[in-house]
Amino acid sequence: MAVYTSLSDSDMRALVADYYLGELVSYQGISGGVENTNYFVNTTTGKYVLTLFEEFEFDEVPYFLDVVAHLKHKGFNVPAALIDIHGERLRMVNERPAIMVDCFSGSELKTTNEATCKEMGAALAKLHIAGEDFPQHRESHRGVAWWHATSQSIQSELEPEQANLLLSQIAEFDDFMADHADLPKTTIHGDLFYNNTLFDGESLSAIIDFYNACHSWVMYDLAIVVNDWCSDMTTGELDMAKYRALLKAYLYEREPSAEEVVAWPYMLRIAALRFWLSRLEAWHGAKHDPERLAQQHDPLEFQRILEARVRYTPTLEVS
Ligand SMILES: Nc1ncnc2c1ncn2[C@@H]1O[C@H](COP(=O)(O)OP(=O)(O)OP(=O)(O)O)[C@@H](O)[C@H]1O
Ligand SMILES: N[C@@H](CCO)C(=O)O
């Protein structure tokens, strides 16, 4: 279970007393995530989620809270940090930065289908448009500099064919970007996998986990979403019906430039590589700790997606 920081009953009671949330009724660690510690917190006024940030220091968190506040202001159902009795939205809890947010109704999808892909495509385009005027431009902490450094440091752990795939794909992307420095950017979610959404039936009810948000290429974010929502995880191949449903809904809301159309195959591949690499890094970092290793996502899924995108990438147009 991914609860890296454990809270006692008295910790939680004291914390809840610092918000306008009534009395603590119960709380439960959430097993789903891998990056942060999350708890469901039930009080006499409702249900909330406590997040303790395991990867960021206190000063790094406000950017993410500001992104969410910006999107909430524009009408998206996203988890804005609640204000405590001292007027603060961010605090330290057991030496980790922490926030409390509303717990949304709706459930995680077990898998995607054409209807949920269509919902996501439309919402993603609107998110990209809404993020354009967010004034803070933060680089991704898992962006170009990170994948250069990590691909070098992890090489010795890989089979020669894996290292070759990794390095050749990064080189190919760098070559492409050298001639396309003006590719459109916006504020992107950066990790909009379907387990970071909640649905009421086939209707999208909330988008969560904005802690990979950054200022980056619009098409990169679309590629992250397509790779997760539209791939067969056992083969890495795209499910073309889901792909068309997601893209059609996206393109109805936002028309990509000609340069973005050209960039699309590169973005699909580098987006697959980014998650292959982060999973490899987490996997190798946890390999001496069986409990932690068991919580990690399988890197092979994204190796297969990358290999599938190297074999074939569809165009961005849908007929
Ligand atoms: N505001 C919320 N309302 C309802 N459920 C939530 C909320 N926040 C988190 N959850 C639940 O907790 C799970 C884990 O949360 P989250 O994805 O933010 O954790 P994480 O460690 O950052 O995960 P990962 O990095 O693996 O995506 C979610 O999949 C969702 O089921
Ligand atoms: N969504 C990521 C984990 C959290 O960043 C993955 O599946 O590898």
Automatic annotation (TrEMBL):
<feature type="domain" description="Aminoglycoside phosphotransferase">
    <location>
        <begin position="27"/>
        <end position="240"/>
    </location>
</feature>
<dbReference type="InterPro" id="IPR002575">
    <property type="entry name" value="Aminoglycoside_PTrfase"/>
</dbReference>
<keyword id="KW-0418">Kinase</keyword>
<dbReference type="Pfam" id="PF01636">
    <property type="entry name" value="APH"/>
</dbReference>
<dbReference type="InterPro" id="IPR011009">
    <property type="entry name" value="Kinase-like_dom_sf"/>
</dbReference>
<dbReference type="InterPro" id="IPR005280">
    <property type="entry name" value="Homoserine_kinase_II"/>
</dbReference>
<keyword id="KW-0808">Transferase</keyword>
<keyword id="KW-0067">ATP-binding</keyword>
<dbReference type="InterPro" id="IPR050249">
    <property type="entry name" value="Pseudomonas-type_ThrB"/>
</dbReference>
<keyword id="KW-0547">Nucleotide-binding</keyword>
<dbReference type="GO" id="GO:0009088">
    <property type="term" value="P:threonine biosynthetic process"/>
</dbReference>
<keyword id="KW-0028">Amino-acid biosynthesis</keyword>
<protein>
    <recommendedName>
        <fullName>Homoserine kinase</fullName>
        <ecNumber>2.7.1.39</ecNumber>
    </recommendedName>
</protein>
<comment type="similarity">
    <text>Belongs to the pseudomonas-type ThrB family.</text>
</comment>
<dbReference type="GO" id="GO:0005524">
    <property type="term" value="F:ATP binding"/>
</dbReference>
<comment type="pathway">
    <text>Amino-acid biosynthesis; L-threonine biosynthesis; L-threonine from L-aspartate: step 4/5.</text>
</comment>
<dbReference type="GO" id="GO:0004413">
    <property type="term" value="F:homoserine kinase activity"/>
</dbReference>
<keyword id="KW-0791">Threonine biosynthesis</keyword>
